[in-house]
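For the sake of clarity, the format in which proteins appear in this thesis is described at this point. The fold follows as a row of integers, each naming the local backbone shape at the matching residue. One such record is shown here in full, so that the layout can be seen directly:
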Amino acid sequence: MRYVPVLALVVALLTGACSSSGSPATSSPPVAKATTAAFDSSWSKVNLKTGAITRIPAGKTTSGSFYVVSPDHKKVAYNPCCSWETPALMANVDGTDVQKLTAGGLDGVGEAWSPDGSQLVYQQRDGSGDALGNLFLQNVATGRRTRVTNLGPKQWGWWFTFPSFSSDGKSVLYQLPKGPLANGDNRNWNLWSVPVTGGKPTLVRRNAGWGGYSPNGRWLAYLSPVRHDFTGGGLWIAGVHGGTPRALVRGGSLLWPRWSPNGTQIAYANGSDVYVADVATGSTRKVGRGAQPEWLNNHTLIVSGG
């Protein structure tokens, strides 16, 4: 699959399917450093207190896309913009010391940091087709990559798994469709979890996708699937230990829900706009045009296409 610009990338993201067999973790040697720089002028910082929008400066040699800052604000994970390959990259926040995380010729998408910033998770796959690939962890200190899933070689159509860590950093949450592609539609999802050490995946929630745990580990936010579409039709909150789910947002074309660091808000995209929902009250507000919101801190978002 050819790489596409940031806003179109969301449209091209595909979900995959899960093997029921166990998947012991496997390790690979550290990967070589790249030479590109990180920052992309199509991304902006949005201050939710003041409403100010600040463009993120362009890099020295190439632009980037989809980037997310580590919890200590020292590192950034991102993808290079507008090239045939879409490897996962990591750099210092000033764009120096760029490292390529994915193996040669393979794409790496959906990067997310562990709560302590010691690891990154991403989906590594061959972008020339629709195979899922697998989820990999990258140890930031040692540079060692570890495969934690065994998703199989089948072609599944919609492949994007939207991985993220649990609040304690011991497992990875990801989305998969219910079954193989059938009549062009397998966009009803389930949420799964796998230990960071590898092993048999666990079904977390049926009829749910684009999931993420709250920072305190008590809640799961997810989107309810929409048939014939890759977006969600509602944003829901469910207790990790049971209880009746609560709808924060109903209707729309929802994508990319992300918890704020303090767990009081959830940012998400709805069509070509970015919104923030208050978890306690359910009130929502539009913060601007864009996609793929990521939190820099409790009052600042990084948004693409703003």
